[in-house]
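Office hours follow-up: a student asked to see two folded examples consecutively, so here they are.
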Amino acid sequence: MKEKIVLITGASSGIGKASALLFIDKGYSVYATAPSTIAMTDLEEKGAKILQLDVTNSENCRQVVNRIYKESKHIDILVNNAGFGLYGAIEDVPLADAREQFEVNLFGLAQLTQMILPKMRANREGRIINISSILGRMTLPMGGWYHASKYALEGISDCLRQEVKSFGIKVILINPGAIESDWANIALSKASKNSKNTNYRAMTIQLENLLLKSKKIQVKAEKVAEVIVKASLSKNPKIRYIVPTHAKLICFLRQLISEKSFDYFKEKLFNFHS
């Protein structure tokens, strides 16, 4: 059996790092990437090959892909994990920042996927695992640009899955809920910068309270990593994995009630107001 090669973006922390460690434990050959390799020395010590990668830089992406093909000849699993949460009222967020959100969360992912697909097609096999969010299936105020990028990722993934199925390639979505990581802190800093001193100040404070409360239900990134590896190993993986349990319950509730009722539920539960 040939050695399985995994490429993971955003592997310097959180879900990306946890996935890299678990893939290594399972005997995979892992290329762990991030814009900076400083926080990945532990992965290198475990056996991962660490590479600097800015997914928004096409030349950087091409260099990384070419190096992997030169060393390993193929990529069996691509885990598109790189991303961040741009928060703040839609009115307040500069469009340049909104474009950056899409460059990282969608277009960077897409260009790396485009570079890897030809060889996967030629080999008639491969897995593309896109890390979305339950916030790619429902919305909260103050996260419009982040939600938009994840909604777009859901659509791209659903189309791509159908396009490449006949070539033996499987496209899988992972929808995490509240996970222990730096994501919430980054999102809060963006919200504060963009809207703490505007007409949306009260809503920004409510968002801060909500994200602080969400820490009580956060689970370790390893829980998501386990699902990613499971999806990689499964002969017939699901189209979408929602994890952990609280995320499944929230998505189930969203399916049960109307959009207007869900808006009312959010208003009461999170006490958002202007």
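And the second, which I mentioned at the end of office hours:
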Amino acid sequence: MNDESGTGEPKIRVSVCMATYKGADFVGEQIASILAELGPDDELVVVDDASPDDTADVVGRVGDPRIRLVRSPVNRGYVRSFEEAVRISRGAYVFLSDQDDIWIPGRVELMLAAMSDSLVVASNFDMLGGGSRPWIPRLKSADSRRHAANLFAILIGYRAYYGCGMAFRREAAGYFTPIPAYVRESHDLWLAICGNEAGSIAHLDESTIYRRIHETNQTPAGWRSLPKIVGARVMLVRLMVEAFRRTRRGSGQATAVR
């Protein structure tokens, strides 16, 4: 295992990018499900966000050479951790992964096939151990090319884009990163906005992960106050404008937003 933050040109097939924080209870099981899906030359990039528990040590003890562990000296939040993981990843295809889910066998090949003609792919999930899903309807492949409708659905909170079920081709990294500085959550919606603005996103009808819901999930849950709802919608509008700018200008010229 490489316990470092090196960089390099894309030279491997799949990079899985994971942000960890206080995930010691579940991250080992998740990593096992991911490694079972990867080839010998793929990589799992784990950026630990200064966890106060032994999360990073749990990752380190796996001892697989495909794992690249980066220990952040300070806590920056999961959005910046994902951004760092993507930045240092080297694969031609980038998969996002939470620390506490379980990958369904066949996930990688199914999503790679979808990216043969799309920059971004978004899949569905089932609940680990059964149980009800969030109320937002499942993604449908029939909606893949309905980009304007997808953007509107993102704005009103009606599209089930979850980062744990998403991946993108290396060519889309210049749209996705750098993530605008005002984004503190919803990096997955930012990626979905980029894919839809670029006119190149595929929805999978299938589920590719089992999602675990527990008390310490980093993704916000439950109903929010009206000011937070309004603030989130303003942020999404700003992101749509920024994604329009980046996708029209070209990925190689994307710049940070301040």
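Two things to take away from it. Residues 10 and 90 are 4 Å apart (CA to CA). Confidence is low (pLDDT under 50) at residues 251-258.
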